[in-house]
Design a protein that fits this description.
The protein has 410 residues and is an alpha+beta fold. It contains 7 helices and 21 strands. A 5-stranded antiparallel sheet has the order 1-3-4-9-6. Strands 7-8-5-10-11 form a 5-stranded antiparallel sheet, with no helix packed on it. The chain has a 5-stranded parallel sheet with strand order 14-13-17-18-21.
């Protein structure tokens, strides 16, 4: 069974006494505790804390599990357990939370008879009661002026930046177009595979429409030129295109009335099928960069903002550490630089996440446990729960890299 349970609890009490602290500190926060996936005897959880009070520089979250529940591995927090009492403390890079800012951590756990959501929380030893309050306290390292600001997080799943303050009612409506392969594409039936692009829209407000044009099995060239890429190579080793006309999907996106418009975004992720030695999927290094440039130029001519992504990683392990396994990484970065567009290193973000989520080591059985809840019965494609987490990695990168799209994130 795979379940998604979300509970939001308002909490107060972020602070401890400071000698000679002249001013009162407003304290309070909200917490979202989500069971992201669940299987017999185990589960994964995601916890997000939003600071509703004055800035803080350290936090400790506590709760009580039911009998039989336990934490087995955590990331973005140091989590310990004594009996049923659980304590999660910030790590070096996410102790600071600005007013309105958030911090996120996750963990894998075990359960026996049931897996209920905790019913109460404490922050820094103070019971969470509901709304921000004034308290003559602050964290020990915080100055009297409360001017401490959070440092940018380098963790793929942590977010310490404040939420955008712009009202969604004043934003123009935009479309995010996605071009990619099966790891991005909408599911074609059943529960596997599910591309991360199908889980992207819920991370944005109502002013964003996501149009997922990713197609399984495509290299960048077959995506752009289907069905005209032949199985014959030319003298330079590239697949012959005949006739040299674009696919209907790319033509449709270039259409002035129905396609991409000024203010829209185009996210491009290829590099998995492109390494095939045989045509029609084969794409050489120079050709790959050329085609990324063609897509970027066409989009930019229409006032569309382009974001390139390195290919999301499959799951391969070296002991307890997930390792990189995709090609065309340098080519993607080179093309982004040449075309003056940002690049999200989803390859590194994904395999780093796999390590933190405890998906390594594994026995290669992708039907059971945490790795089975994340991946289909292979090492490449995602279950819905896995696709959700990859989509969140992309959204967090948008926030951490301060891309213009940040104002549309929830």
């Amino acid at each position: 069974m795979r379940a998604l349970i979300a509970v939001t609890l308002l909490m107060v009490g972020l602070g401890v006494a400071v000698v000679n602290q002249a001013s009162a500190a407003a304290a309070g926060c909200s917490v979202a505790y989500k069971v992201t996936n669940q299987w017999q005897g185990g589960f994964g959880a995601d916890v997000t804390v939003t600071n509703l009070g004055d800035p803080v520089t350290a936090w400790t979250l506590g709760w009580t599990f039911a009998s039989g529940q336990s934490v087995t591995q955590a990331w973005n927090a140091t989590v310990t357990q004594s009996g049923t009492a659980v304590t999660a403390k910030n790590v070096s890079y996410n102790g600071s939370i600005a007013t309105g800012g958030t911090v996120n951590f996750g963990f894998n756990g075990a359960w026996t008879t049931s897996n209920p959501v905790p019913g109460a929380f404490t922050v820094n030893g103070v019971a969470c009661t509901g709304s921000p309050t004034a308290s003559p306290c602050a964290t020990p390292s915080q100055s009297a002026s409360h001017s401490t600001s959070p440092s940018a997080s380098t963790s793929p799943s942590a977010s310490t930046s404040p939420k955008p303050s712009a009202s969604s009612s004043t934003q123009p409506k935009i479309t995010i177009w996605l071009a990619g392969d099966s790891t991005v594409a909408n599911p074609s039936g059943g529960v596997c595979p599910v591309g991360w692009g199908s889980q992207f829209a819920p991370l944005f407000n109502a002013n964003v429409t996501v149009k997922n044009q990713a197609v399984a099995g495509r290299s960048i060239q077959t995506w752009m030129y289907d069905p005209n890429v032949t199985s014959t190579k030319d003298g330079s080793g590239e697949c012959v295109i005949s006739p040299n006309t674009y696919s209907t999907r790319w033509q449709g996106m270039l259409d002035a009335s129905t396609g991409m418009k000024s203010g829209d975004y185009l996210f491009i992720q290829f590099g998995i099928n492109d390494g095939d030695s045989a045509c029609p999927r084969h794409v050489g290094s120079a050709r790959y960069k050329q085609l990324l440039g063609v897509m970027a130029a066409a989009a930019k001519q229409r006032g569309v903002k382009v974001v390139m992504l390195t290919a999301v990683a499959a799951i391969t392990c070296s002991g307890s550490t997930a390792t990189g396994n995709r090609g065309f990484l340098t080519e993607t970065n080179d093309a982004a630089s040449a075309n003056g567009v940002p690049v999200i290193d989803l390859h590194k973000l994904s395999y780093t996440y796999y390590t933190g989520a405890g998906l390594c080591p594994n026995n290669g059985d992708y039907t059971q446990g945490a790795v089975g809840a994340f991946f289909c019965n292979d090492h490449t494609h995602f279950e819905t729960a896995g696709a959700v987490q990859i989509a969140k990695l992309v959204a967090t990168a948008v926030r951490n890299q301060k891309l213009d799209l940040i104002g549309y994130l929830k």
